What does this fold into?
Amino acid sequence: MRTFLLFILAIGLNACRPPQPATTDISPPETLPASVKELTPDQVVNLIQATPELVILDAREEWEIKQDGLIAGAIYVDYLNRGRFTENTAKLDPKKPTLLYCAIGERSRRCAALLTEKGFTQLSVLSGGFEAWLASGKQVQK
It folds into this structure.
C-alpha cells in the first residue's frame, strides 16, 4: 500500500509540471563555420537597417514563437523539425544575406553549419539568441 501511495504521489507531482516540448537533437553546440558572423543585438539592428534583402530565419519551435513573438519579418523554419526545416530552407536563395536565431544560440549555430554545407555564403547568427534580443529591449513582433 505504501508503494502504491508513493507511486500516486510521484504521478501527481509530475502532472503539476508544465509540459515540455520534445526535442530531437541533443548533439553538442555546433562550432560556427569560419565564414559565419556572430552578431550582437545592436549589430543585428544595424544589419537589418542596412540590408533590405536580408533574410531572417527563426529556428525556434512554434510554441516559443507563440509565447515570446519573433523578430519582425522572420521566417519560421523550426530547426528541430527536420522536414519543415529542409522544406523551408530549400526555397531560399543561398546568395542572399541571411540571419539565423533561436532561443539562446545553439540551434542557430547548428543551422548555420547545415546551411553552409548547402552553399549559403552570407550567414550571420544572433549571439545569445532571442533571449539576448529581448534582454536588450529590441522590438518584437507578436
About this structure: The first helix runs from residue 2 to 15. The first strand starts at residue 37 and ends at 39. The chain is about 40% helix and 10% strand.
